[in-house]
Amino acid sequence: MKCSVLVFLLLTGLPVLAAQKDTFTVARVIDGDTCVLENGERVRYLGINAPEEGDPYFREATQANSDLVARKRSDLNLKILHVTHRAGS
Length: 89
Known about the structure:
This protein is mainly beta. It has one domain. It contains 1 helix and 5 strands; from the N terminus they run ββββαβ. It has one helix spanning about 60-70, and strands spanning about 5-10, 15-30, 35, 40-45, 75-85. The chain has a 5-stranded mixed barrel with strand order 1-4-3-2-5. It is globular and about 35 Å long. The relative contact order is 0.39.
């Protein structure tokens, strides 16, 4: 089963937004809005703010994400945002 998922990948670099579509296998789920691909890249879903560990419904959100994408090949639309951290901001 293929899922189309919009992901947000945060990297350090210049402020540039690029889009790329490819097929990946999700190796494991970290929480309700983050997973790790088979190539080791960690991805975070754009527009999703799931509960963090220790928050109510963390386990349910993580399980729902796992049920949808874990160990499955998925068509991912990657939006890669390169961010420069500035001192004092």
